[in-house]
Amino acid sequence: MSQFLAQPLGWGTGLIFAGSAVALLAVVLGFVTYAIYFERKVVGWVQFRHGPTRTGPLGLLQTVADVLKLLLKEDIIPALADKPLFVLAPLIAFVPSFAVLATLPFTESIHFADLGIGLLYYIAVSGITTLGSLCGAWAANNKYSIIGGMRAAAQMISYEIPLIMSLVGVILMTGSLNLIDIVNKQAEMGMWFFIPQILGFGIFIIASLAELSRTPFDIVEAESELVAGHMTEYSGFRYAFFMLAEYVYVFGMASITTLVFLGGWLPPFEFLGFIPGIVWFILKFCFMVFFYMWLRATFPRMRADQLMQLGWKVLLPLSLVNIFVTALLKEFF
Amino acid sequence: MGTVTTEEMMLNMGPQHPSTHGVLRLIVTLDGETIKKVDPVIGYLHRGTEKLAEDLNYTQIIPYTDRMDYLAAMLGNYNVVHCVETALGLEIPERAEYIRIITMELQRIASHLVWWGTFLMDIGATTPFLVAFRDRETILNFFNELSGARLTYNYMRVGGVKWDVPPGWVERVGEFVQYMKKELSNYHQLVSGNEIFLKRVIGVGTYTKEQAINYGLTGVMLRCTGVKWDLRRDEPYSIYDRFEFDVPTATEADCHSRYRLRLEEIVQSLRIVEQAVAQFPKDGDFMAKVPRVIRPPAGECYTRIESSKGELGTYIYSEGKDKPYRLKFRRPSFVNLSILPELLQGENMANTVAILGSIDIVLGEVDA
Amino acid sequence: MSTPEEKATAAAKAKEEAMRKLKERKAAAAGGTKPSASEPPAATVPEAQAEKPFSEMTPEEKAAAKAKAIAEAKAKAAAKKSGAEVPAASEPPAATVPEAQAEKPISEMTPEEKAAAKAKAIAEAKAKAAAKKSGAEVPAASEPPAATVPEAQAEKPFSEMTPEEKAAAKAKAIAEAKAKAAAKKSGAEVPAAASEPPAATVPEAQAEKPISEMTPEEKAAAKAKAIAEAKAKAAAKKSGEAAPAPAAEKPISEMTPEEKAAAKAAAVAAAKAKAAAKAKGGADTAEPAGDDDKAKAIAAAKAKAAAVAAAKAKAAAAGAAKATGGAGAGATDAAPSTPSPKQPVLDLIVKTITEKVGADAIEESYIRANSKDMPTIVVKREKWLDVATLLKNDPELDFNYVSNLLGIDYKTHMESVTYLHSLTKRHSLSVRVKTPDREDTKVPSIANLWRTADWHERESYDLLGIVYEGHPDPRRILLTDDWVGHPLRKDYVQFDEEV
User: Which residues does chain B have within 8 Å of residue A301's beta carbon, measured at their own beta carbons?
Assistant: First the structure.
């Protein structure tokens, strides 16, 4: 597929390129729709209830109904809000979430851009979303939003560092930032990276939860604590954009976890190799998403300052230790 | 560049707020993330119960008590009938007493279950809320069979209870008790050891024993400081002195100790219900012989009971008529809430909800 | 547990167990010398018999078990009211002995039991008389336990006990009356007439029985007691304390004519005494509320007094502690009024306040019998802050906890009532502070002493308009800040009348 996409740009090929991007968009949107549905179902089952069952067969059209509602809502912009920034903030939050999907390889053949620095690109671009939250908080001209936005920004920035540091161990072992190389290295090693890089895996999972602002780090959105977060003043489709950004990041983060630590499209045992790689990718990806939802149903929320302490005082030193140990092992073995 | 000044910000946790357990308004003055001053504004649910009571006879007041602490309506009912009965010097038949004990303790369990669920929901865990409510449903169904209502029962009367228990009811309550005892281990497994939860509640919202007594705190708020004071044990009313139960106390007086104590109290209430079911008389009256018009003798009477929130008291000044001249309820939520400004001073903003949740207030009772 | 019969027996058995344990606990708390070994065996006898295939055993056993349970509960309640702290070691064990023996198929035990109980009662009475003469604080607990003996025996459905019991009780009553009179003559604080409740309970307990042979002795005892009490009241009144205690209980049907007569006599005597005291001009402090209360009370005095006696008869052990005013009782005190076990507390409080703040601080003091014997004092509002400080700081009183604080709008004046409690000493007090009229409604604030009072006073101000001077934050609390008027006042007119 990358050869196909490497063709010179013409009208025909351009259309096909756009079409394939739209196809990915459709897949991701479909994922988002049913991830939201599935999340409500899973959390419901954990809590002894059914979740959505009424809209459509088995409640499958619930998210469709919700999105439709959001689209049809009145677009309210507060009078004292900073209007250009208010309009722009959801876009700044949302666009990077799609942009990072370009570098994700779903199988050896199905991928869009095969960047040499794929992993770094992902982490770097996903950091732009923080700006979007901050803009949104400021533009709303609301005390609650500002406090919430500050907290969101602080949280996301603090956890970027352990996130990257935990990946450095994998990069050291692979010798490349290219995601396909990382998966191939796992095939070569015969084991997935979560085994030799167990510490990194643990740190990555925690940091990714914080990056996604999901429970137990959902101070940002579930601010029944005190404020309703940076999204207080947004209603209707602007609000939907922030939520969409979050779920697309779930897609992205689950994919990265699958690729880097869980072997991507590789089967767990060789004799199962007849099952196509994409199926394995989807299975592992679904497991990660389910894991996020499971945690949401079970755990309480961390306090903002405890969250920061965890990021800086625990995860960062541990990830540095991980790098050091990996480097030592790589040097001497 | 001149000097950098910082201002204090005033934040309003408005009357409508998901975490204030009702219509409570907190005017918080913040310096950054530290709270400088909190001014609770109450009265949003003030319904003038005490004024209304002056025009109602004693039986008509009982439904109002359901609605004060609406999560512990049986205890509210008992509170007022006990005061009238004390003033009259009535002796209550055995069966009525046992029915009352069972319903009051079941109500205490239900109230603590709601507290557990909502406290954890404020902390961020959404599942315990549904787990607690599922078990509370069983209790509410029992009350439904008994009185026809799930929340506001209007069940107790001066002299006894309004209706007798349906056949088989007591046995089913006994089965529920056995079920609930096992179920509580699930509750602990779900939450009590969770690191995140523990970090949020240990050491949060502490105060001293002297402060607690001076502020008039009662119930778990007092027992968490180490004072072993439970009106069921120390000033027994009804037939509580026949039952064996412990009064759990703690010493740290933080949110975690209050959490533990309330769960322990559920255990103790289950013990009482178990014993009451075992001793339940086969037959007997469920209502004493009271005159049609209840006229306590002239004078005042003040009695207090141990409600799930603390010491719930009724003061009646009667002129010998069928309506009270003055009726006042001593409401534990009202008194327990008064320590909130003290507790929150200098505290981190993020702990507000945890501390407020651990006080366990019901706004209907705060405002009456 | 299949058949209802089995269930019922199991229930009765369970209750027995509970009562027994309760009794043990109470006994252990009161003295700890009770030979606990005697109980389980006795208790297990009927329980063991409960296991048998239920045939002839069940009815008698059930009856016995129930009787025992009731006896135990009442005994325990009486003992608790007497003040568990006072170690009355000899009494509870003795009291439990008859109860334990009640379980057995009752026959041979009774004579020895009766004799033992009687001897004990007489010894107690003598000891008490001696103690009173020496002016020591009367250990109140010794009497109620003795009272439980006749009560416990009263539960038993047998007749032979009664003559000795009557005699013992009567002897005791007479001894106590004499002792009381002597003590009063010496001018000492009238001891917390603990002798009265037991004496009263004796006729009451005996009144429960099918009143046949008892009546003559009962009448005599009741009369003696009533006269003694009336005398006591008169003496106390002379010392200047007046207390309108309209404590009375609901009119209940059964009242023995003798009790009524005795009650009437007492009421009349008390009224006369009060009038005499007033005439001497010592009742100026009791005027405002005293008149209202007195009028009310006198109007209902007779019926109430008789009702009090009857009510006590009905609720034997519970009624034992209910007093309609000990020393210094007011006009409404019923004749068979037994001084409350809380009287020592009241006396201690009154004494301490009088010593440390001044004799004029307290206007009245009395016991509210139908409010669980709450000691009540009325304090002059100028002295209220001093009295409150004393109540809080005095190590013997140690009222560290405010249970309730409210305002009342009597149509002629306002009142602020505070209920104090001591968590360490386990005693309560109710304090009333009156304002002279409805315009001048200032009362000193005690919010700086007890922070509980803070919000309570704000509520009282908000709803009734009683202004608490010295309050740290005198704002409205329940109503909006711009509300006009005080709704709980009797003359409050709603803004929107048709609502």
Answer: 123-125, 196, 200
- CA A176 to chain CA centroid, Å, is 22
User: Among candidates C378, C385, C357, which has minimal Cα distance to C241?
Assistant: C378
Residue with tokens 């803004």: C495
Specify whether the CB–CB gap between B219 and B354 falls below 8 A: no
Residue A10: inside a domain, yes or no? no
Residue of B nearest to A305 (CA): B350
Q: Give the number of domains in chain A.
A: 1
Which CATH number goes with the domain that contains B202?
1.10.645.10
Distance from CA of A143 to the nearest CA of B (A): 8
Contacts of C479 in chain B (CB under 8 A): 43, 46
- Interface membership of C426 toward B (CB under 8 Å): yes
Q: Tell me the sheet residues that pair with B305.
A: B312
The pLDDT assigned to C32 comes to 47
Across the range B221-243, mean pLDDT stands at 92
**B350 has a chain A CB within 8 A of its CB:** yes
Domain count, chain B: 1
- The Cα B336–Cα B350 span in angstroms is 21
The answer to whether C430 touches C376, Cβ cutoff 8 Å, is yes
For residue B148, the enclosing domain spans 9-367
Asked whether residue B4 is assigned to any structural domain, the reply reads no
- Assess if residue A23 is contained within a domain: no
**A119 lies in a domain?**
yes
C15 contact residues in B (CB cutoff 8 A)? 242, 279, 281
Q: Which two tokens stand for residue A15?
A: 């259309």
Distance (Å) from the alpha carbon of B354 to chain A's nearest alpha carbon: 9
Domain housing A298:
77-332
Residue B67 has pLDDT above 80, yes or no: yes
Q: Report the distance separating Cα A27 and Cα A33, nearest Å.
A: 10
**H helical segments located in C107-247:** 109-133, 143-155, 161-185, 196-208, 215-238
Distance CA A93, CA A244 (A): 9
pTM of the model: 0.73
Determine the straight-line distance between the first and last CA of chain C, rounded to whole angstroms: 58
Phi (first) and psi of residue C420, to 5 degrees: -110, 155
pLDDT digits (tens, 9 = 90+) for A223-232: 555 556 677 7
pLDDT interval class at B123 (50, 70, 90): confident
Decide if A28 contacts A248 (C-beta within 8 A): yes
Contacts of B27 (CB under 8 A, 6+ apart): B10, B11, B12, B13, B38, B39, B40, B41
Helix pair C143-155, C109-133: axis angle to 10 deg: 160
Element (DSSP H or E) covering residue A120: helix A118-126
- Map tokens 């290219």 to a residue: A178
Residue numbers in B near C420 (CB within 8 A): none
Q: Assess whether pLDDT exceeds 90 at residue C165.
A: no
Tell whether A195 is covered by a domain.
Answer: yes
Domain assignment of residue B2, yes or no: no
Amino acid, single-letter form, for residue C45: V
Convert the pLDDT of each residue in A117-160 to its tens digit.
Answer: 989 999 999 889 989 888 888 888 877 778 778 888 888 889 99
Closest CA to C250 of C300, C200, C177: C300
Tokens of B293: 């018009």
Two structure tokens written together for A109: 């053949």
Q: How far is B267 from chain C (nearest CA, A)?
A: 19
Does residue A63 have a pLDDT over 80? yes
The C residues from 73 to 92 touching B (CB cutoff 8 Å) are 73, 76-77, 80
For residues B329 and C433, what is the distance between their CA atoms, to the nearest angstrom? 19
Nearest to B46 among C12, C73, C479 (CB): C479
pLDDT score of C228: 53
